[in-house]
């Protein structure tokens, strides 16, 4: 992922911290949560197992879509002068 970002972004263009630009925040965590929490867990160990299982079963196509959307999200952040965007 870092190599992907570096190819499209210079250090002067590097955006401020934004959850809108973090693929884990805007996509991956929500997916993992929905899959891992489909049923209640009685123990932390059970929840950890479910998260690891969801991670392993995450479709490659989903990850590709998330990565492919990143340049557009970066541009939206630039257009919003680093502020919030949808």
UniProtKB/TrEMBL annotation:
InterPro entries the UniProt entry points to: RNaseH_sf
Gene Ontology terms for molecular function: nucleic acid binding
Q: Which domain of life is it from?
A: Eukaryota
**Name used for this protein in its record:** Transposase
């Amino acid at each position: 992922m870092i190599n992907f970002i570096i190819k499209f972004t210079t250090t002067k263009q590097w955006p401020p911290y934004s959850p809108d630009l973090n693929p884990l925040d805007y996509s991956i965590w929500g997916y993992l949560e929905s899959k891992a929490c489909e049923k209640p867990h009685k123990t932390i160990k059970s929840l950890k197992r479910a998260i690891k299982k969801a991670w392993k079963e995450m479709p490659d196509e989903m990850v590709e879509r998330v990565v492919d959307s990143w340049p557009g999200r970066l541009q939206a952040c630039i257009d919003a002068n680093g502020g919030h965007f949808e």
